[in-house]
Design brief:
The protein is an alpha/beta fold. It has one domain: Glycosidases (TIM Barrel). It is globular, with a radius of gyration of 18 Å. It binds (3S,4R)-3-hydroxy-2-oxopiperidin-4-yl beta-D-xylopyranoside. (3S,4R)-3-hydroxy-2-oxopiperidin-4-yl beta-D-xylopyranoside binds next to loops. This is Beta-xylanase. It comes from Meristemomyces frigidus.
Length: about 300
């Protein structure tokens, strides 16, 4: 089976996964990517700390590798991410002056989004900027600029790559009644109304068993604030089939859910490896994979 082809055929939505030079140098990984997944997100290579580890010194090799791999193999490229408080170099976290922070965000985005302009279906412009209470959380960006960093980042991304869909991406958006989900949905609606160029909300969807049931209502709520939504980093502890089926059904039920990205090909490569959250173990499909295939067939 090819779950991307089945998903595209049923609903025109992509089913993707992550990659970078390390995992893509493993032929068991590339065999699965090439047979089952139609979209790629760089797991780490486009993050600030990887791509601009020192101010104005760029390290493009890893990100170029992934972007070229996507192009050569006909995969949709989702670019991840431009502004995040993790995997952030110390020279950025040390900035306390708002004007210097503004210029630093703008030049980072101009360089990185500019380099891949026209190649990224979407960019995660902001990653994990909300707290569990549904408000913007303390970070080097928020601490220096307050809420204004949101507009600064999206405006810079729009200027650098007018073709990419611009996303705000976050985790724990898996229930429609959770304060983080409701708070983020309300804020994004307000920002869109104020003219900030936000096209999409990405729901990372790192789940534990049993959480799949809330995803459809949550996605519908998020979809009310923007023109599209996506499931951007799916993995589920224990890879419970019912939860995987719930998540795929949730994206099918929301017209403007454009696709699903799984965060890891094989359990052995997952950042949550100990919870066995992916669709493959020992590079063999698990029950959850077969459940998705029967759902989409
Ligand atoms: C993770 C990667 O999978 C790991 O390899 C890395 O060590 C840490 O970051 N939210 C995100 C992703 O937006 O970028 C993170 O990826 C997982 C949580």
């Amino acid at each position: 089976a090819n779950i991307n082809a089945l998903f595209v055929k049923k609903s025109k939505k992509y089913f993707g996964n992550i990659g970078d030079q390390g995992t893509l140098s493993n032929s068991q990984t590339t065999a699965i990517i090439n047979s089952d997944f139609g979209q790629l997100t760089p797991e780490n290579s486009m993050k600030w700390g990887s791509i601009e580890p020192e101010n104005n010194t760029f390290s493009w090799a890893g990100a170029d590798y992934l972007a070229n791999y996507a192009k050569t193999n006909g995969k949709v490229l989702r670019c991840h991410n431009l502004v995040w408080h993790n995997q952030l170099p110390a020279y950025v976290s040390a900035i306390t002056d708002p004007e210097i922070m503004t210029a630093t965000i703008q030049s980072h985005i101009a360089a990185v989004a500019g380099r891949y302009a026209g190649q990224c279906y979407a960019w995660d412009v902001l990653n994990e900027v909300f707290g569990e209470d549904g408000k913007l959380e303390a970070s080097p960006f928020y601490n220096t600029l307050g809420e204004s960093f949101v507009k600064i980042a999206f405006d810079a991304a729009k200027k650098a790559d007018p073709y990419a869909k611009l996303y705000i991406n976050d985790f724990n958006l898996d229930s429609a009644t959770y304060p983080k989900t409701t708070g983020l949905a309300a804020k994004v609606k307000e920002w869109v109304a104020a003219g900030i160029p936000i096209d999409g909300i990405g729901s990372q969807t790192h789940l534990n068993a049993g959480q799949g049931a809330g995803v459809e209502a949550a996605l519908k709520l998020l979809a009310g604030s923007v023109s599209e939504v996506a499931i951007t980093e799916l993995d589920i502890a224990g890879a419970a089939s019912t939860d995987y089926v719930d998540v795929v059904n949730a994206c099918l039920a929301v017209e403007n859910c454009v696709g699903i990205t799984e965060w890891g090909v094989d359990d052995s490569q997952s950042w949550r490896s100990s919870s066995s959250p992916t669709l493959f173990s020992g590079f063999k499909p698990k029950a959850a994979y077969n459940a998705i295939v029967s759902l989409l067939q």
